[in-house]
Design goal:
Blueprint lengths: L3 H19 L5 E2 L9 E3 L6 E4 L2 E4 L4 E5 L10 E10 L5 E7 L11 E5 L35 E8 L2 E6 L2 E7 L20 E6 L6 E11 L14 H11 L5 E6 L6 H11 L2 E6 L6 H6 L6 E6 L12 E4 L14 H18 L4 E3 L5 E3 L6
Parallel strand pairs: 14-15, 15-16, 16-17
Antiparallel strand pairs: 1-13, 2-5, 3-4, 4-13, 5-12, 6-9, 6-13, 7-8, 7-12, 9-10, 10-11, 18-19
């Protein structure tokens, strides 16, 4: 005998089928702008309110699940679009292929991260930024400021998941068969079907949602891209990244036939974000401005420590050749190393550098604070 909820879902889909058929290919609103009709909050239900035509997530942890009549609240292939505004230190998210869960974070489905400036709680540092496909394809650069509306679009076609931030393609992930599921509580993070949810992560994470809409796509859509090869590297990128170790290659040069388009395609395929280095004759504000709307870090190389770096760049690579120098015979080695370490720390703290690379291949990194 079918489960009650499955029977109810089939009934609702039958009721809405004529409407959906007549609106095939059109966007359908999931939020009416006035009420929580069609949505079901979990645990701390008072954390969700409608204010001035927007969904406000403001309070203790709660997830707001879509349970309304559109497509029986059961989606397989689709385009989902939401407009979001965050306040500083906000951590939120958009879930798909999830199901209602009364407590804790959803164990089923995928999360698209919403986090522009939140750094984590307690001893936990959160490095996954807005538009990450959480735990599978993580983004580490902040592209969106708080207190401004921005758009997230999620598209699922067959085995392919794409995530766009303000029309910029951030994630283009093809799920292998069988799926590789990262460590953690989300043991049902694989392509399936079901509903959407919005996240109120914690008290103090204030997020606002509007224009929540969906465009259902045919269930039989196939994935155009080939399935990825699952080897140890593929698994380690997911498992290491899931544990908040940034998976970034900061030393990518567009030369030798490597174009920006092919670099971006490889970056998305491999799950490693890139830092694109400007050519020596192109390390200019003009080059950086042209690259501002690409999902990469921007950097340039310097063979001597620069006294200042353009705020349009994210980092500077600088060779610290003194690390490979041998102290003169009459110089105390311990004193030499102490002075060398002090010099390097001074560079990292005093210059506008994110990365200070030695010619030995060692890399030292720090966070640059810019205003």
């Amino acid at each position: 005998m079918p489960h009650f909820w499955e029977t109810r879902r089939a009934f609702l889909r039958a009721l809405t089928a004529p409407v959906l058929a007549s609106a095939a290919g059109n966007w359908i609103d999931l939020f009416d702008g006035r009420t929580l009709d069609g949505w079901r909050p979990s645990e701390n239900k008072e954390s969700w309110k409608v204010r001035d035509g927007v969904l406000a997530a403001d309070g203790l942890r709660s997830h707001l699940f879509y349970t309304g009549p559109v497509h029986g609240a059961d989606f397989r292939n689709f385009e989902l679009e939401v407009e979001v505004l965050t306040h500083p230190d906000c951590n939120s998210g958009v879930y798909f292929y999830t199901r209602y869960q009364e407590k804790d974070f959803p164990q089923k489905g995928f999360e698209v991260q919403i986090n522009n400036t939140a750094g984590g709680e307690g001893n936990y540092r959160e490095r996954k930024k807005t538009a990450s496909l959480y735990g599978l394809r993580n983004m580490y650069k902040q592209f969106q400021p708080d207190d401004q509306w921005f758009k997230i679009r999620v598209s699922v076609r067959g085995k392919n998941i794409q995530v766009r931030l303000n029309e910029m393609l951030m994630v283009d992930y093809v799920e292998p068969t069988p799926p590789v599921i990262p460590d953690g509580m989300e043991h049902e993070r694989f392509l399936d079907h079901e509903t959407f949810a919005l996240q109120c992560h914690n008290d103090g994470s204030r997020a606002f949602y509007r224009h929540v809409r969906v465009r259902p796509l045919p269930d039989n859509l196939a994935t155009a891209d080939p399935a990825p090869t699952v080897d140890d590297v593929f698994r380690e990128v997911i498992n290491v990244g899931r544990h908040n170790v940034p998976m970034v290659d900061f030393h990518v040069n567009l030369k030798g036939g490597l174009t920006l388009e092919s670099a971006l395609a490889k970056s998305r395929r491999d799950g490693i974000e890139y830092g694109i280095l400007a050519a020596p004759d192109a390390a200019s504000d003009r080059w950086a401005r042209r690259m501002q709307h690409q999902p990469v870090f921007l950097g340039f190389e310097s063979h001597s420590t620069p006294h200042s770096a353009s705020a349009l760049f994210d980092y500077v690579l600088s060779d610290s050749t003194s690390w490979t120098q041998t102290p003169a015979a009459n110089v105390d080695r311990e004193q030499f190393m102490d002075e060398l370490v002090a010099h390097t720390v001074g560079v990292l703290e005093g210059e506008q550098l994110d990365i200070f690379a030695s010619s030995t291949g060692a890399t030292f990194s720090c966070q640059a604070q810019r205003t």
